[in-house]
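Forwarding these from the shared drive since the link keeps breaking.
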Amino acid sequence: MEETLRIIAIWVHILGIALFVGPQFFLAFAWVPAARGIADQRTRLELTRKITSRFGWLGGAGIVLIIIAGSYLIATWRDYYSYPDDAGFTDIRYGVIFIVKMTVLIVMLAVVAAHIFFVGPRLVSTMEDHLEGRATDADLRRARVLSMALSHTGLLLALVMMVLGVMLSTTKFSFAST
């Protein structure tokens, strides 16, 4: 039963990662370049609003799955790997890598939250203002550059966490002494 629960948790964790990272790749490398080809700015704005909202929900669901499955995996790691209770968590690379991964997660969540709650809405607002003549081309460009910078930073941090996750799952490496 323990093995089955672990397999399910790993699968849910990977599914969450796919749901979180996949939309980021799509938005950055498919939607944004394709949207530039939409001549009607109002259509472009409405599509951007709808697509980013739906992908935001998908990515949010991914984060929930990541946290639920990841919590199970870290709560059961000692038993699963038969690691002694009296041994220190940071006595092996596993603990150090996990701490680094969680630090990167916190930074990434802050970057993503800043984008979702402040920078993204400001970009949409600036796009609307630009359509109405209340914002300049330079204002719009600044908003887009900031949005892309945060988006790419969040994606890069997610990819770093994926590497750290692979390092954790490579027991010969991660269970070596620090």
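-- next protein --
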Amino acid sequence: MKSNSIESNNNNSPESSKDSGQSFLNALVLGLGNILLSDEGVGVKAVEELQNRYDFSGAVEFIDGGTMGFELLPYFEGRSDIIIIDAVKTGNAPGTIVKIDDPPGYFSSKTSPHQIGLADVLGIAAMTGDLPRNISLFGIEPKQLSTGLQLSEEVARNLSQLIDMVADELKAIGIKVQPKNKQLS
């Protein structure tokens, strides 16, 4: 289930893509989850903290996807890369961070409302040719999904590492990432 790089299975060749074969970078970082259900809101909180901690080049957009479903479809159009951050149930210990190598496959078998909606959005994006060339999912295993605004200790402890991993992924795809509070090393 884990991987270091993702290639989507859309059939967009350079000749058929909307950018007429020109290389472009237009990334989306999508945080998912319900902030009212403790660890379920980790994706939304991670996107917020990512923007608080780093400055980024103009080639990336951050979206609080909350529990949206089909409303996310317009955000997929014309993207070169999408990074999704969410709580994921993988059977690992709470707080474990994973990178899923097949987000469409992972979300198609899940049962939370936003994950079912996202599976449909990914399917439609694939059919319309709007699935980006690279799509990845960074997830963290939740401990509690009960009503509450706070993350569990296990998830909160690893949130910083998750944020840094997403920042590194953005750097790897060509986004300029600078810490806001630069400290001398």
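The first strand starts at residue 27 and ends at 32. Residues 50 and 98 are 17 Å apart (CA to CA).

- D.
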